[in-house]
Specification:
By secondary structure, this protein is an all-alpha fold. It has 5 helices and no strands. The relative contact order is 0.17.
């Protein structure tokens, strides 16, 4: 289970880094490591499940939720 979560963290960081570069912003501004870890732990399967993650902003879920879950 720990290995799967570590793989999700790495996948999410890869997505964040690529997306942030495309947007011309710092990766930590787009989504910080605390949220990445929370997403990897929760492993949401829907936008509704993403709403349960403390600190996750609505705009991030609305704009990138599907991409985040795909990562």
């Amino acid at each position: 289970m720990v290995i799967a979560r570590a793989q999700r963290v790495n996948a999410l960081k890869g997505w964040r880094d690529e997306r942030a570069e495309n947007l011309g912003m710092e990766p930590g501004i787009l989504i910080n490591n605390t949220l990445i870890n929370a997403l990897a732990l929760k492993n949401p399967r829907s936008l509704k499940e993403m709403e349960e993650i403390p600190g996750l902003k609505s705009w991030l879920k609305d704009q990138f939720g599907q991409e985040i879950m795909g990562a």
